[in-house]
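Thread: Modeling a multi-component assembly for a lab meeting

Hi all, long-time lurker, first post. My supervisor asked me to bring a structural picture of a complex we are working on to next week's group meeting, and I have zero experience with this. I have the sequence lines for every component (1069 residues in total). Could someone generate the structure of the whole assembly? Inputs are pasted exactly as I received them:
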Amino acid sequence: MSAVPLNSGRTASLAVRPGLKRSQRRRQLTALAMLTPALLGLAIFFVFPLLASVVFSFTRYDLLSDPQWVGLLNYEYLFTKDPKVWIAAGNTLWFVVILVPVRMLTSLLVAMLLVRARQASGFWRTAFYLPALVPPVASVVAFVFLFNPGTGPVNTIIGFFGGQGPLWFNDPALSKPSLLLLGVWVLGDIMIIFLAALLDVPREQYEAAELDGASSAQRFRYVTLPNIVPVLVFALVTGVIAALQYFTEAAVASSVASGKATVGEGAGSTIGYPDDSLLTFTQWIYVRGFSNFQLGYASALAVLLFVVAALFLVLLLRRVKAFTPEEAQG
Amino acid sequence: MSALTLTTGAASATPTRARPRPRTPSKIVVWVAEHTLLALLLVLFIAPIIFVALTSFMTSDQALTSALWPDPWSIETYVKAFETVPLVRWFANSALYAVLATGFMLLSSVPAAYALSRLKFKGANVIFVAIVVAMLLPPQITAVPLYVMWVKAGMTGTLLPLILPNLLGDAFSIFLLRQFFLTIPREYSDAARVDGASEWGILWRVVIPMARPGIAAAGLFLFFHSWNDYYGPLLYTSENQAWWPVAYGLATFRGSHSTNWGLTMAITMLVMIPVVLIFFFAQRVFVEGITLTGVKG
Amino acid sequence: MKMQRPLAAIIAIAAVTALAACSGPSNQEISPTAPAHLEGTVSLWHFFSDREADVIQSVVDDFEAANPDVTVDVHSGQDDEKLQKAIAAGNNVDVGISYSTDIVGAFCSSGAFRDLGPYIERDGVDVGQFSETTASYTQFEGTRCALPVLADAYGLYVNDDMLADAGYDHAPQTMEELEEMALAMTTYKDDGSIDVLGFNPLMGYYENTPTNWAMTVGATWLKDDGTSNIGSDSGWAEILQWQKDFVDAIGYDKLQAYSAGMGQEFSADNAFQTGKLAMNFDGEYRTAFIADQAPDLNYSTVPIPTLADHSDSYGGGYVTGNIGGIAKNSKNPELAWALLEYLTTDTDAVVKLSNGLKNAPTITSALESPDLEVTPQFQTFLDIIQSPNSKTTPPSKVGAGYQQAMGDYWNKFQQGDGGDLTDGLTGVDTAINDSLALVDGP
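Re: Modeling a multi-component assembly
Sure thing. I ran the full set together rather than chain by chain. Output:
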């Protein structure tokens, strides 16, 4: 997949063709035909619900009776009265600020070690990538089991060495760090991108730096880093986006760790366990919307999330080459 | 970018980079240190799966203790798993969801990605940016109106709200496919165009055959995404057990059935195995897909 | 392009409103006489699973046998969240049974459950046969949209052997007594962690809910207008402080470690059933679990103890229960009513359900029925149901929201993060009243 000069020769070959206007027109129509399903999809499943969320956020709506216009009531409650919205926002922020950088750093470390491992490189790479393949629900269930305070292997092993294992997913102070361990375990998805980028750094640059007498730290700083910056930015942006919507891992961890029968109550009843320490913003939207059926209020929360995510996208989108349309070819 | 693969790529990637390795003592020390660190990390990375597997082979009673090693080895929990919950049904639902979603997505998204990568038309950039934004924004933002829509369509309680939208394109897949199509040299399609081929013809006869790995990767991503999906089924099918996919079933399993870890670990293993198997058969395609999203662009 | 944008927005808004507003009118007209012959299919949604679902099925079978042309389509394992989704989505729900009374406020006021008044009046059903508490929690603001399908009463379970080993010959009547006995029965492992616990005072553990603890002081939840009464009822502050002192006497961290290591409440490794816990608040249904999973356990049951200065409210317990109603979208409400009536007022059906589920029957005829299987442990709960000192959680438009607000604060308080107790409870009042205003304000 070497860089192919995508623009070469194309304009010339088009320019000499007769009937350009007509062929362009036809191509426009073809493009439209090819894009019709996707455009409809964007309209029905993205643009329309986005606008509708805003409308709903000014209503009181439980799906059973008609929506009722309540003006700014939902927003007033959100910003001044909701007892948990800031807990939820804080937890989500934790995952953005801690989980994302820690995953990136450990991924980079593992990738750099893997670049150096020349013998049996395939074995090493597969081994470190494998956990990323495990379906998230399965990996969370597995981790809650491994770290369960009663019979979990982790605390059993700590016990062998005479230690007293902590409560992990059952301790409000450790539940997020426990999920961080899980996040590091499944670092394969980022690691593999970093590994590809590291392998792509031109060897000559290292050799030149070595001839100049650069230390290994300097080689990293002046050769490696500049080459992998685009990939780091990509991982950062997608990581933050994923952290903003952190849901499955936290919800399943809460449900499994609580050991509580949800008989009768539903998924919403264990969300956040222990002590709301795993209550993330998207889960709060779920609880309000689909557990309490306050769909209007859930929409107000969604609008807030949209504003935050959009601000973030505006700030960072342009920095990721893949997300900018410049490459769209004519 | 060099072809990076996990189990087979080493040979092809190394020779071009190989350089005489100075066998000085300090280099050997570094080599040993690096490999020791790798080996230690490896143990930590593999251990969770080993422990899950070991626990799944314990008897139900032993799985309740803090024992680490099965004694005796037993497949009791696997047998029980099929008796306790409708596992076959769950797997069938997951397969149905993943296969239909993937098929529908390819039908709708391949032409769209082609148009965005190859055809010049007014508004192309706007559409591309809209797709990127739709791909990146958290799905919970639109959850309420979408839910209301599916309620009014009478389709909640089934997997249809998760499958049908793929007929109208999937943002991430379109994005990924477009990235792939951009890597195919234009000379081929230009040549076909000079020969009088229509755009549909070029897509069908030139681009798709050349982009097969990319299409396979996009398909695999959506397949895995659907197979692993928890949020979607929670929202749309939680009230209808007949349509639970296996990932959702596993998540609710410990809550709704008074049960033990051994059984849970057996089901966890069963959920993992298909994904890992598919990966080993298609890993080249898969890894290429991942790296292409991030590196190329 | 620019001109079209506001237009597009208007169309979108109109579309949303149209979508949302097309929930059809609910037709509450009913025929003047009950149909002489029942036929068709009726769907029953309930939350039970496994063994308990089989019990429901056996009664459903009886109903089908009595009405040969009727088929009951049973959906088991449907918790409140799912039931509400299904009803809101207009799925095929005729009769819905919820595990608790928490949805009554929302379901009665929104019409998710139909008003049963017309049917009750037409068919001359005697509402007086239900105990006063169960009759009260199945209606909201004058609308009866549900009937009680068996009741749950909560009391104290005591392991007699462990009590005897510690030198006690009777179960505690006051919480002070309970604490003294609990501390005496608690044993520790070599590393200082708890091995066997006399009583676990941690809020949130198993059935350690604010509702059960409220019984120790007879505290009340809501004022008549539906707003919170927690800050105004001095009993709350009293029991919160007392409970925290109890927690501190053993140590929050130790209790937390113990609780996390114990088996799941509804599994065979429930701590009371395995003998790791000597005394425990629990519902009457536990007697069935014990008979099934720990038949050799030697135990007895008593009403929830009170604080010594609240002994006048002794004898009662927290009473709640399963409730059933007819869904808004029911396509065959007459059939649904017939099934609901059978499940809730037919003596044989109620006795059979009660015997199978070991839940308390809610109608007088079933309570007096010779067929009702009553063990001494179960009798305690039948007495509790009929006790004037028993209390329930009143239906509210915020459902269980007010109990959660209390539970959340209590949880913080027992860890020492609750700040000043009076301010904290006032805060709970505000939180409850705010959320009430969100769903029901002007």
